[in-house]
Amino acid sequence: MTIKIGVIADDFTGSTDIGCFIAATGCQVVQFVGTPDESLNSSDADALIISLKTRSCPVQQAIDESIKACRWLKANGCQLIYFKYCSTFDSTAQGNIGPVTDALLKELDSHFTLICPSLPVNGRTVVQGHLFVNGQLLNESGMQNHPITPMKDANLIRLMDAQSSGKTGLLDLVTVQQGANAITEKITQLQQKGFRYAVVDAMTLEDLRQLKPLLKHFPLLTGGSAFGQIIAETSDHKISQISQQYPSAGGRGVILSGSCSVMTNNQVARYQQQAPTLALDIEQCMTNPQYAVELSQWVMQQSSTLAPMVYATQPPEQVRHMQEKYGIEQVSYAVEKTFAHLARLLSEQGFNRFILAGGETSSLIVQELGTNKLEIGGLIAPGVPWVRDLNQNNRWLALKSGNFGDQNFFQHAQELCHD
């Protein structure tokens, strides 16, 4: 059975993340920045992805934008809607994962769905409803220090119940590994007991594949990029050539890093030994309207082989200090706006390769650049492809979620560029 998949991603790095996982199955993928105003001209795509910036915006805004995306995807032939959020379940007690899931269930006239953030290839696993990152509980993995959505609990059932209107049950690992019949029986039991969602235990991709026979019966599914890959595997689509396109080495590149994750801190520290880097002055972001111009001048003066980097990546204690002084939302907004303004200035000066770290940072920059349609290119690291701006054929972007990639990510991304 051919199933056209419609993906609603709550941030831009997450959308390219799931895009490369779905494309790896041979699906033809088209990715949009925001919900398009017009219907799709071509129906050839097996999966349509809409990138939103709804992970940490006000709850009602997240609901409204997600419903708009859902209606557009359904109108353009998508039979199954997938709500994609981060494999570290980035959210707060107010949302936005729970409220958006509830709204989509109502929109699709459905009463039950699965919660499945597991991403085994990047060390995200779920056991007894608890989310682990490389063997550490979520709330001990560094995510407890996230500047916008600090994760203080690893129990997905508690996290979901706190921000949603229904009850959350567990599809435990023993049941999952017993296969489709046992899973179906367990889901039926949960539904009969009034549960609206089931957190799925999964340690490996094979655990997730146990769910495949059931997935076509769900109007809505939710989770990370690995589960999206499994959904794509259920569809009898025509196999497309998996993209191995990488940017040309011509033009100029820059790295803009707004993520404060543990891995990005390590990646920035490594890159400081390899190329010119400049730390963002958050005081200047807050008070100097010409700061982005000054930063652009510094970037353009650099002549190293590797791209210069401007970074806001800082240790947790420094982030907390600035947040206490100015406020969490104010600091985040000022940093993102500075990066977005800087990216636009550099684009106007001919920069055509942008390596961006951090979901919030990436989202605002992509919007500022006027990008609205992307093509998935070759892989840099699991969950991070190069993507080509279909409005500006020579513009390429790499949108990296905070904890993705190894320590040499920034250098490796550039090594893949060809002459």
From TrEMBL:
InterPro entries documented for this protein: 4-carb_acid_sugar_kinase_N (IPR010737), 4-carb_acid_sugar_kinase_N_sf (IPR037051), NBD_C (IPR031475), NBD_C_sf (IPR042213), OtnK (IPR050007)
Domain Four-carbon acid sugar kinase nucleotide binding, first and last residues per copy: 254-410
Ranges where the Four-carbon acid sugar kinase N-terminal domain occurs: 5-229
Top-level EC class as recorded in UniProt: transferase
Catalyzed reaction equations: 3-dehydro-D-erythronate + ATP = 3-dehydro-4-O-phospho-D-erythronate + ADP + H(+); 3-dehydro-L-erythronate + ATP = 3-dehydro-4-O-phospho-L-erythronate + ADP + H(+)
Protein function: Catalyzes the ATP-dependent phosphorylation of 3-oxo-tetronate to 3-oxo-tetronate 4-phosphate.
Similarity annotation: Belongs to the four-carbon acid sugar kinase family.
Protein name: 3-oxo-tetronate kinase
Organism of provenance: Limnobaculum xujianqingii
